[in-house]
DNA sequence: CACTGATCTCAACGTCTGTTGAAAACGAGT
DNA sequence: ACTCGTTTTCAACAGACGTTGAGATCAGTG
C-alpha cells in the first residue's frame, strides 16, 4: 500500500498509478466501514498519499465514493449470460454466481460497501436502489414469463441481500461455515420459487 | 419532544421523565441513522436537553446505545408462543408476526437500529449476532426436529434480515408496496422450507 | 534551458464530535 | 430556614473530520 517513495514532495514519474491506488484503498475502506465510517484521511493513508491529493483527484468524498463503487462486473454482460439459458435452473445459476463472486472478492467486495453505506446513508440507499433496479432487477424481470415480474425480482433481491448481510456482515456462525454447494442448493431453490411459483397467498 | 420547560436551569420536579425522553429520542435516532450517524447532540436536542445530561445518565454513547436497544418484546415469551403450536405453519406464524411488528413499529423499530448499526459497527454486529443467536435462533433451533437445526435457523435469519433491509431500508418499490398477506404467504413458505425441507444439494 | 502543466505535500481553516468539570436551580428532609 | 442530593445547564476541551490554497517537485515540450 505504498506505491511510491514516501515523504518526498512533488511529482514522481509519469502515471505513477497513485490514482488507482487511491481507488483501491477507497474501495476497501468503503466496503469495510461504509460511507460515514471510511475517512478520507484513512484512505489517503492506505494509499500512502496526502489527503489533499484525494480531493485534488476527486473533488469531494461523495465523488470519490461514486468513483470507487463503479461495479467491477458489467451487469449488462453478466445478467444476459446468466439469463440466457432460460428460466430452468436460473435460480441456481444466480446464486452460484453470486456466492462465487462473494467468496472470490472477499472483504473488498464493492457490494458490501454499497450495502454498508446504503443502510445508514439515504443517498447511498437511493443509489443502490437505482443500481439494483435498472442494472439488474429490471433485466431479470424482463426474462421472467410469470406474472408480476418486478415483484418477483424484488423478492429475489431481498433473499440475496439477506445472504450478504447474514453471511458476510453479521457472520452468523453456521451460515458462514456452511458448505458452498449446500447453500447454492437451498438458496437456488428459493430464488427459483420466487421466479416461477404462483404468488397466491398460502 | 419537549417534555419540560426549555432553557431554564436546575431541577424540575421529581422524576421528570427526562431519562425516558432521552431513551425515546435515542431509539429513534439510532433506528434512523445507526450508531455512527446518530449524535449525542441530536439525541439531546430531540429530548429538549443538554448533551451533558445524556452523559450524566448513561456515561458514554456506547452505554446509551445498549440501553436504548433493549428489546421492547421479550423473546423468551414471544418465541415459545410462536413455536408452541408445533412445526406446522411455523414459517407463516413467524413471518406474520415479524411483518406485523415491522409495520406497527415503523421507523422507530429498534431492529432497524440494530441492523443499521451492526452493518458498519463491528461491536454492534457482535451484539446483534449474540442477541439473534441466544435470544431467538437457538430457541427456534431447539424446536426444530430436522437435522442441522442451527443452520436452519441461520437460513431463516438470512431471509428475515433480507426482508428488513430490502423492504424498510432500501425500499424496493414493488416489495414495499406489495400486499401483506401475499408477502406472508411467499416468505412464510420459504421459512417453512428452511425449517423442515431436506438440505441435500439440489 | 526555460516554460508549462501535472503531480504531490504542507499547513491551516472551520466545523462537528464525544466528553468533562463546575456551578446553578430546585425538591425534599430536618 | 438550612442542608442535602438530584437534576440540569453552561462553557470548554481535545481530537477528528472534510476541505482549501499555496507552493514544492518533477516530466515533457519547445
From TrEMBL, chains A, B:
It comes from the Bacteria. SUPFAM superfamilies: Homeodomain-like, Tetracyclin repressor-like, C-terminal domain. The keyword Transmembrane does not apply. Keywords: DNA-binding. Residues 16-76 form the HTH tetR-type domain. Residues 39-58 bind DNA. It comes from Actinomycetospora chlora. The keyword Secreted does not apply. This is TetR family transcriptional regulator.
Amino acid at each position: 500500500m505504498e506505491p511510491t517513495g514516501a515523504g518526498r514532495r512533488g511529482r514522481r514519474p509519469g502515471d505513477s498509478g497513485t490514482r488507482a491506488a487511491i481507488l483501491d484503498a477507497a474501495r476497501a475502506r468503503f466496503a469495510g466501514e461504509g460511507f460515514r465510517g471510511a475517512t478520507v484521511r484513512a484512505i489517503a493513508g492506505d494509499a500512502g498519499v496526502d489527503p489533499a491529493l484525494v480531493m485534488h483527484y476527486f473533488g469531494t468524498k461523495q465523488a470519490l465514493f461514486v468513483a470507487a463503487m463503479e461495479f467491477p462486473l458489467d451487469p449488462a454482460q453478466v445478467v444476459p449470460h446468466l439469463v440466457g439459458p432460460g428460466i430452468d435452473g436460473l435460480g441456481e445459476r444466480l446464486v452460484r454466481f453470486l456466492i462465487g463472486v462473494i467468496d472470490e472478492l472477499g472483504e473488498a467486495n464493492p457490494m458490501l460497501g454499497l450495502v454498508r453505506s446504503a443502510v445508514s446513508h439515504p443517498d447511498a440507499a437511493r443509489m443502490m436502489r437505482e443500481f439494483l433496479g435498472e442494472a439488474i432487477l429490471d433485466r431479470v424481470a424482463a426474462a421472467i414469463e410469470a406474472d408480476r415480474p418486478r415483484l418477483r425480482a424484488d423478492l429475489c433481491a431481498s433473499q440475496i441481500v439477506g445472504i450478504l448481510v447474514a453471511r458476510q456482515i453479521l457472520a452468523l456462525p453456521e451460515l458462514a461455515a456452511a458448505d458452498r454447494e449446500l447453500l447454492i442448493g437451498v438458496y437456488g431453490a428459493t430464488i427459483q420459487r420466487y421466479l416461477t411459483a404462483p404468488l397466491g397467498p398460502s
